[in-house]
Design goal:
- The chain is 53% helix and 0% strand.
- It has three helices and no strands.
Length: 75
């Protein structure tokens, strides 16, 4: 069998099999995902313990950074 058709067949097989393997890997990764309600998910995403008001002072922005200068960090 000449090399041209063999390489073409190999490329077609790879083009069909590779996405299926990737799908199986992603699907397997999501199988053990813990399901939580919306408020729990938001709290985990923010890493919020419910005491966020005590941790942030009046001068802090919502992201917890202080304003020590301009946007480049220069005073």
């Amino acid at each position: 069998m000449p090399a041209g058709p063999t390489l073409f067949a190999l490329a077609v097989v790879f083009a069909v099999v590779a996405p299926l393997v990737l799908y199986a890997l992603v699907s397997a990764e999501a199988d053990d995902t813990e399901r939580v309600d919306r408020s729990t998910a938001q709290r985990r995403a923010r890493r919020d313990d419910g005491g966020s008001e005590e941790r942030h002072g009046a001068d802090d922005d919502p992201w917890g950074r202080r304003d020590d200068g301009d946007e480049n960090g220069r005073p």
